[in-house]
Design a protein that fits this description.
With 521 residues, this protein is α/β, with parallel strands linked by helices. It has 22 helices and 15 strands. The protein binds 1,4-dihydronicotinamide adenine dinucleotide (NAI). 1,4-dihydronicotinamide adenine dinucleotide binds next to helix 3 and helix 6.
C-alpha cells in the first residue's frame, strides 16, 4: 500500500459522519464499557468484544442499568436510552472487525497481548480502518512494532470514568501518521471530549506530570516533616480537590506504586522518578487504601473522616511588637500589607515598607517571617538572624487558607510561638512543619512545573495541552503553566535550586526550558 496515510485511513470522514461508521471496542472491562457507551451516545453503531465468554454481554447489561438510572434522574429520555443501547451489539468473534472503521482496544495492560491482538486485527480490518489503543502506560511505538501498517495505530487514552472525564490523550507513536492522530482528535471532539495530543513517551502527559504531586508528599513523609493530614490540608488549600495522601488511598497504593515504578523503569531509572519506600511499605503490608480499609488513613466502619486539620482559633489582637515592616514587593507583600491594614487600621502608620530587602514577608523587630524561596529558615537566618521563620506559597484567595511554616532550628522559643500568631493575624491557618526546603506547596508546584517544562521541551505536548490535560485528566485547580505565570520562572527555578542543593542527585535538576524562561524574565 503506497498511498499517503491521509488517503488510507478515512478518519476525517469518521468524525464528520459519526452515525454511519461502526466502531469495534475490544475488551469489555471498566474502560471498554465506558468507551462503548460514549461512542454509542455519539451515534456510532458499536460492536463490543471480549475474550472472556459472557463478559461483553455482561458489560452491555450493566450499561442498560446505567441508562435506566440516567432515565430515572431525567438526564436521558427513555427513547434516547433505548436507541443508544440498541446501537451496542455484542460480538463473539474478531471477524466482526471487518465492518469497523475504528477499533478501540481496552484489554489487559500487557505489551505482548496487545501486539498480538493488533496483528490479528490487521488481518481482518479494511484498508482504511484506524486502530486505537487505550493503553495507559505502554509505548504506542512498541505496540505498533510488527504491524504491516504501523502508521494507522494511535493511542486514544481515556480517563476513568470514561463517560464523565473529558480528557482524551491522543498519543502518536514514532510511526503514527499525523492524519490519523488528527482524525482521532476530531473524533474525540465529536464524542464530546477534549483531546490533547501527546507524543508516545513514558506516562504520556498526565501520568508523567502528576508524579511529583505524590512523590514530594511521600518524600516529606519520609523526612517526618509533617503528618498526612497536614500535608493534605496544605495542598487542598491551593485548590486541589484531594490531598496527595487521601488521593493515593483512593487510587490504591498498589496501582499508584506500579504507575510510578513503570514511569521510573521506562525512563531508564532516572532518579527524578524514583518510587518511595514509604509507599512500598504500604503496598508490602497490604495497606492499599480505601479498597483494603486502611492506607494513610483508616476506612474502617466508624473511622473518622480523613485529613481533617482543625482551624486555628481566631486571633483578636496582634502579637506585641516594637517595630514592624512589610518587606519586599509583589502580590504577597501587597496582600500582607492590606491584611495588616484591615486587622489593625489604628496602628497602620507604624508599619514600614521595605521594598528592597531582597525577600518578601514581615520584619518584626529583629525577627523575620519570610516567604519561602526554597531555602530553609535555618539557612536563611544563619547565625545572625536566628529568629527567622519561613512560610509557604499562599494562594491569597482561599478564605481560611492552611499555610505551612517552619522556624529556624536556632529560633528562640518566643519567636517559634509568635511567628504562627502573625500568620494567624494575616488570615492564615498556620501548620508547623519541620524546617524542610520549599515546604509543601512551593516544593510541589515547582516540581509539577518542572516536569511539565521538560515535557514541553521534549515535544511531548504543548504548554496549553499540558494545562488542559492536568485540569481535565486529574482535576487540578490550575495547570502547571498557570502556576508558572503566577509565581514566575525565577522563583520556581530558585526553589528547585534550593531543593537540588539540599538533596543533590538528579531528582531536582532544573528543566533547561525553565532555566531559559528564568533568564528571559
Ligand atoms: P479490565 O480488567 O476492567 O478489563 C479488561 C478486559 O479485557 C477484561 O474484560 C478482559 O477479559 C478483556 N481482555 C483481556 N485480554 C483480552 C484479549 N486478548 N482480547 C479481548 N479481550 C481481552 O481493565 P480496564 O481497567 O478496563 O483497562 C483496560 C485498558 O485500559 C488497559 O490497557 C488499561 O491500562 C487502560 N486504562 C485503564 C484505566 C483505568 O482507570 N482502569 C484508565 C485508562 C486506561
Amino acid at each position: 500500500m503506497n498511498a499517503a496515510p491521509s488517503q488510507l485511513f478515512g478518519l476525517t470522514g469518521l468524525a464528520k459522519a459519526p452515525a454511519d461508521l461502526p466502531v469495534l471496542v475490544v475488551g469489555a472491562g471498566i474502560m471498554g464499557a465506558g468507551i462503548a457507551q460514549v461512542a454509542a451516545q455519539a451515534g456510532h453503531p458499536v460492536m463490543l468484544f471480549d475474550v472472556r465468554e459472557g463478559a461483553a454481554a455482561q458489560a452491555r447489561d450493566q450499561l442498560a442499568t446505567t441508562f435506566d438510572t440516567l432515565v430515572a434522574k431525567q438526564k436521558l429520555t427513555a427513547e434516547a436510552a433505548a436507541h443508544i443501547l440498541a446501537r451496542i451489539q455484542v460480538v463473539t468473534a474478531l471477524d466482526s472487525a471487518a465492518r469497523a472503521h475504528l477499533v478501540v482496544e481496552a484489554i489487559v495492560e500487557k505489551l505482548e497481548v496487545k501486539r498480538s491482538l493488533f496483528q490479528q486485527l490487521e488481518a481482518v480490518v479494511s484498508a482504511d480502518c484506524v486502530l486505537a489503543t487505550n493503553t495507559s502506560s505502554i509505548s504506542v511505538t512498541a505496540i505498533a512494532n510488527g504491524l504491516h501498517h504501523p502508521q494507522r495505530l494511535v493511542g486514544m487514552h481515556f480517563f476513568n470514568p470514561v463517560p464523565l472525564m473529558k480528557l482524551v490523550e491522543v498519543v502518536s507513536g514514532l510511526q503514527t501518521a499525523p492524519a490519523v492522530a488528527d482524525g482521532i482528535v476530531e473524533l474525540a471532539q465529536a464524542w464530546g471530549k477534549t483531546p490533547v495530543h501527546a507524543r508516545s513517551t513514558p506516562g504520556f502527559i498526565v501520568n508523567r506530570i502528576a508524579r511529583p504531586y505524590y512523590a514530594e508528599t511521600l518524600a516529606l513523609l519520609q523526612e517526618q516533616a509533617a503528618n498526612p493530614a497536614v500535608l493534605d490540608a496544605c495542598l487542598r488549600s491551593v485548590g486541589f480537590r484531594m490531598g496527595p495522601c487521601e488521593l493515593m488511598d483512593l487510587i490504591g497504593h498498589d496501582t499508584n506504586f506500579s504507575v510510578t515504578s513503570s514511569v521510573y523503569e521506562a525512563n531508564f531509572f532516572d532518579k527524578r522518578f524514583v518510587p518511595s519506600l514509604v509507599q512500598r511499605e504500604l503496598v508490602d503490608g497490604g495497606l492499599l487504601g480505601r479498597k483494603t480499609g486502611r492506607g494513610f488513613y483508616s476506612y474502617a466502619p466508624g473511622a473518622e473522616k480523613p485529613a481533617m486539620v482543625p482551624d486555628s482559633p481566631a486571633l483578636t489582637g496582634l502579637p506585641p511588637f516594637t517595630t514592624l515592616a512589610v518587606v519586599g514587593t509583589g502580590p504577597v507583600a501587597d496582600a500582607l500589607h492590606q491584611r495588616l491594614a484591615a486587622h489593625m487600621p489604628e496602628r497602620l502608620a507604624e508599619v514600614a515598607r521595605l521594598p528592597d530587602a531582597g525577600w518578601v514577608g514581615l520584619q518584626v523587630g529583629d525577627a523575620q517571617l519570610r516567604l519561602t524561596d526554597g531555602r530553609t529558615a535555618t539557612e536563611l537566618g544563619g547565625v545572625s538572624a536566628a529568629d527567622t521563620a519561613v512560610f509557604d506559597w499562599p494562594t491569597l484567595v482561599a478564605p481560611t487558607e492552611v499555610l505551612a511554616w517552619a522556624p529556624s532550628v536556632r529560633s528562640s522559643d518566643a519567636w517559634a510561638t509568635q511567628a504562627p500568631l502573625w500568620l494567624q493575624a494575616l488570615g492564615f491557618n498556620p501548620q508547623r512543619l519541620a524546617d524542610v526546603p520549599g515546604l509543601v506547596v512551593a516544593r510541589t508546584l515547582s516540581m509539577l512545573v518542572n516536569e511539565a517544562a521538560d515535557a514541553v521541551q521534549q515535544g511531548v505536548c504543548s504548554a496549553v495541552g499540558a494545562d488542559a490535560a492536568m485540569k481535565l485528566g486529574v482535576n487540578y485547580p490550575a495547570g502547571p503553566f498557570d502556576w508558572l505565570a503566577r509565581w514566575g520562572a525565577p522563583a520556581v527555578v530558585q526553589v528547585l535550586a534550593a531543593l537540588d542543593a539540599t538533596y543533590r542527585g538528579e531528582r531536582y535538576r532544573t528543566s533547561p526550558w525553565l532555566r531559559q524562561q528564568a533568564a528571559l524574565a
